[in-house]
Every structure is written in structure tokens, then in C-alpha cells.
Amino acid sequence: MNHFIITGARVFDGENPLGIVDVEVADGKIARVAGDRPEGVDLVDGTGATVLPGFIDAHTHTDAESLRQALTFGITTEFDMLSIPERMIPVRRKASESSDLADVRSSSIGLTPADGHPHQLRKGEGDPEWPTATRVAEIPAFVEARIDEGADYLKVLVEDGHLFGSSLPSLAPELVAATVREGHARGKMVLAHAMTVDTANQVVGAGVDGLTHLFFDRPHTDELIGKIAAGAFVIPTLSVIASITGASAGASLAKDPRVHPKLTPEWLDNLSGAIATSPRENFGYALEALAALHRAGVDILAGTDAAHLGAPGMAHGASLHDELRLLVMAGLTPTEALRAATSVPARRFGLGDRGRIEPGLRADLVLVAGDPTTAIGDTLSVRRVWRGGAPVSQSPLWT
Ligand SMILES: [Zn+2]
After folding, report:
1. 82 C-alpha vs ligand 1 centroid, how far in Å?
2. CA of 174 to the centre of ligand 1 (A)
3. For residue 57, how far is its CA from the centre of ligand 1 (angstroms)?
4. Is residue 32 domain-resident?
5. Distance from Cα 307 to the centre of ligand 1, integer Å
6. What is the dihedral of CA 203, 316, 271, 340, to 10 degrees?
7. Mind listing the pLDDT tens digit for each residue in 278-319?
């Protein structure tokens, strides 16, 4: 069905609710929004439902099976925030060719010390040796190598491990600054993992374009919020912070009838677990920091940090819906939360072909029962998903 019209559904166009209007799809693209309906085109009845742009999860670590799983939940694009290039390069090729996988962008490998985060989490994964840089003079070659691997943006990790219950060597500030300089000289954004107030201050001061997590080791400072508001964006990843602080809703999400049939027993088990290496009150610091960033007008991008099996508390696809719930809990309106998973990440990552429902853009669409612009939990009630206009199967993945 290459040419069809979704009728009777409310439309959220990535920015605002439009009310009940037609969305016409032809040749994989959005052909028309509202206006006069042509004769003789297949109709999809969207009565009682809302059609939205396919969701973007702005922080994952992914592979082909995870992209397949994510797509059934209406996530049509994932931004991978560190993967082994030998594995990511074929995944990217597959995702660009097959309509049953979410699309993907990636940083390739990130810059971290030889024994730095997340090496402590990847023991036994059989990773090839990770490239790194220990001196400023090595940064240009490190950046060039990532771009040659196909990196869409660059990633640095500044993590001493204490929030994960370990002690790790942390990336030197001058290496962060040099990566920003060399990345920007080559037209690439540089994003940073920094989970503490001090390290976030450091990387934002070095000029990174975005933070891939919120900071939650202690209450935020107004100085830090002000520095971020000068232009950086934030991917809060409340989902993984909830897991780290033992505040995760993964166990109840795994029981939700809209989630349960779509996940394998292994993924249900993973989603139900928690990292739980930090005190629970730290989750409150994250919610307060997000509220302050939001009040300061900082761009917020929804992301989960869903990774491979063994990073408990998250599951590709399902967790993005819980992230939207948490964004609303932190003070965003449902419409603002929906923007954080559609138009805002598309704009900040320069993907002009998606994230909105507008003629000429990719027909990456999700149809959900209810109205998530007033009840955010309705995003999970996925009825239909289209990727580039092609319908996505909603049957369980693993039977
Ligand atoms: Zn991550």
C-alpha cells in the first residue's frame, strides 16, 4: 500500500496538535496534510486515534534486533551514542535497506581512557581493542578515524565511575577541548557523557553541543543551567538515571499488556531489572535539574540509553514511552514531551527529512489510540507504524 490516506485521526505534526485532518502518504513521503481529499485512494481509519511523526530515541546503543524491536513501538530512528564500528557499519547498511528496522545514526566509538567508562560494563563482550587518544596531538587522527568509520557526530565520555559504584580514570579536560575543536573544524557535533555537576560544567565550558545525560550527583547550580542555556541541548535519559538510582518503572512497564507481547523473555527480564548503584534521592536531583533546564529554554531531547542485554532497566522501544512519561513528571507538558521525541531531535541533529508531519518529509508515522497531547501514556497504545510509508508488522517479534 504505497498510496493511502489516514482519515479521522487527530494529528500531532511534531510541533503542535492540528485537530482531526487527513494525512496522505504517497511513494514513502507525506503528500498532503488536510485539504481536499482525492478520489480512489485507500483509506486507513484513524478514528479515536492520533497520528504522530515516528519517534526518535536520541540515546541508545543498538544493533539490528534492537532496531527491529524499537520500530514496533513506533520509534523510527535511533541515535546510537557509542558502538563498536565493526558491528555498527553493517547494522547501518541493513537499516538503510530494510523497512522492518528503525533507521540509525551513530557516533561510532567514543573517546574514553583505555580503562575508562564504559569498559567496566563490557567485560566478556569480546570487543576488539578500542581506539583512544592520550595526548592532544593524537586527537585529529582520532577524529578523522571516527569520521572515516561513518560517525555522524562525535562522543566524549567524562566519567570517574562513582555513580556506578566503581573508580575509573577520567578523560583529561584538554582532550575534551581538543575533540570539540577538531570535530567542529570538520563540521561534526561533539556530544558528552557527563553525569555530575562538575563534569557537566567542564564539558559545557569546553563547548560541546549537547549532553547525553542529565547530571544527578547533587543539586544543580544556576551557573551550570545558565551555561547550558547559551546553546547546548540535553538528552536527559531519565530512564537510565531511574535505573541507576533504583527508581526505575521497568518492572511495571514489562507487565503492561502493550509491552509484554512485543519483548522476548530476555528483554522483559532486562527491562525489569535495575542498575541501582546510586542513592534514590539522586533521581530527585535529576528531575529538578530538568525542570530548571526547561524553564531556561534549553532544548530537551528524549533518549533512553537502552543498550544491549545486560544494561538493566531499559528496553529498546518500550523505554522511550516511559521516558516521555518521566519528562512530563519533570514538568514538560505532553506536547513538549512529544516535541522532544520528534521535531526537536530532528532539528538539533540536522535531519530535515523527518520529525514532523509535513508534505515532502519521510512518511515515518505512528498511529496510537487516544490522545497523547493530553494523556502522554497513550503513546504506548500503538495501532500502526509506517517507516518510509511501508507498514510495520505489529505481531510479536519472537514467536
Ligand atoms: Zn549511553
Report:
1. 7
2. 22
3. 12
4. no
5. 7
6. 50
7. 999 999 999 999 999 999 999 999 999 999 877 899 999 999
